[in-house]
């Protein structure tokens, strides 16, 4: 249970996330808010905190008994990268949601006080209402972009919506001996994690604990599933997708070394677009990528236009800026070494590190 926390002004308090009625109230607020994302849902930030040993938190601002401001947070602790509050942890979205009558500055002040109380010298807000650049806050724009567009009306139209060069790759993937499965079973989860772990090792990134991925799939229920591409019954590409307000959001995906030769990733995303439309989605949200990265250009090749994102960061007075950006020069050597680790060793050590990245 969260300890009591309130300001003398602003009507801001810390929610008791052990109370199912409070959790249901937050879920309803997110569902009814036009800027609500899956990453604002308790189903996300409570699940990922529990699976990584971190702490979920939620600040609300109320006016006449109604929520007018809501900020979900994960308190993430890492001996390598340092401690921080993230809105929200292990996500590409989050931040403060407000309605008429809210006082955003009161919520930001409450978040600062909460961070200091929990010995977290940093806060990162990944979207939502943003603070002004003052009092330790800074804004970071265009370091990442999001990619989203509407789905086409039928299978052939979806293929034709892909630019010519990428469409040729999809057609080649359709001619390969690949099978596609969609589900949420232990078979689906095991296949996904095997592919995901190898993909992360190849990228030089510590892999998340499998419990984290399983917890999200469990928490989201029918709003999440796993699509896996197999070759000779062996998984070569797989992705977990979240579904929110008519949009399919592929989130944790990857492919083995053979995936490129087999064009399994091309098949995976095309099949996911078809699957998403069949289950009633009207949009495909390809998610964020670092500007100029390989993933950034891959999504542009599919005909998606980049939308720059703005994040807000707060650093406590006198504290060093938290550094967990894989593109930084400080981490480049570690990434190069990680790529050369045996897969078994990377899979054992990786989750212990990744749970603190956030």
TrEMBL record:
Domain BioF2-like acetyltransferase: start-end pairs: 167-300
InterPro entries in UniProt: Acyl_CoA_acyltransferase, BioF2-like_GNAT_dom, PEP-CTERM_FemAB-rel, PG_Glycine_Bridge_Synth
Domain of life: Bacteria
Gene3D superfamilies according to UniProt: 3.40.630.30
NCBIfam families per UniProt: pepcterm_femAB
Record-given protein name: Peptidoglycan bridge formation protein FemAB
Organism: Novosphingobium endophyticum
Lineage of source species: Bacteria, Pseudomonadati, Pseudomonadota, Alphaproteobacteria, Sphingomonadales
């Amino acid at each position: 249970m969260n300890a009591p926390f309130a300001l003398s002004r602003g009507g801001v308090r810390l929610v008791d996330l052990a109370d199912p009625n409070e959790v249901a109230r937050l879920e309803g607020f997110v569902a009814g808010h036009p800027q609500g994302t899956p990453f604002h849902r308790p189903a996300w930030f409570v699940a990922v905190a529990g699976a990584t040993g971190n702490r979920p938190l939620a600040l609300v601002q109320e006016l006449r008994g109604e929520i007018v401001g809501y900020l979900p947070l994960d308190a993430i602790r890492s001996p390598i990268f340092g401690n921080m509050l993230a809105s929200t942890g292990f996500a590409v979205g989050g931040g403060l949601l407000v309605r008429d009558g809210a006082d955003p500055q009161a919520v930001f002040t409450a978040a600062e006080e909460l961070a200091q109380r929990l010995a977290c010298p940093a806060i990162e807000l990944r979207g939502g209402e943003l603070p002004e650049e003052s009092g330790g806050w800074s804004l970071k724009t265009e370091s990442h972009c999001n990619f989203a567009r509407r789905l086409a009306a039928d299978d052939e139209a979806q293929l034709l919506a892909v630019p010519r060069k990428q469409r040729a790759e999809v057609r080649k993937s359709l001619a390969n001996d690949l099978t596609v499965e969609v589900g949420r079973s232990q078979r689906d989860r095991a296949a996904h994690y095997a592919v995901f772990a190898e993909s992360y090792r190849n990228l030089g990134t510590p892999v998340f604990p499998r419990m984290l991925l399983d917890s999200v799939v469990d928490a989201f229920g029918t709003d999440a599933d796993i699509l896996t591409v197999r070759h000779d019954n062996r998984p070569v590409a797989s992705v977990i997708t979240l579904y929110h307000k008519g949009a399919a959001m592929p989130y944790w995906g990857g492919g083995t070394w053979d995936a490129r030769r087999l064009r399994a990733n091309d098949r995976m995303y095309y099949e996911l677009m078809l699957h998403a439309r069949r289950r009633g989605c009207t949009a495909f949200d390809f998610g964020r990528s670092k500007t100029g990265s390989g993933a950034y250009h891959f999504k542009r090749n599919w005909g998606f236009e980049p939308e720059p994102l703005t994040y807000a960061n707060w650093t406590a007075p006198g504290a060093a800026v938290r550094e967990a950006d894989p593109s930084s020069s400080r981490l480049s050597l570690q990434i190069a070494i990680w790529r050369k680790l045996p897969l078994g060793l990377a899979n054992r050590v990786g989750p212990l590190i990744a749970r603190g990245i956030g």
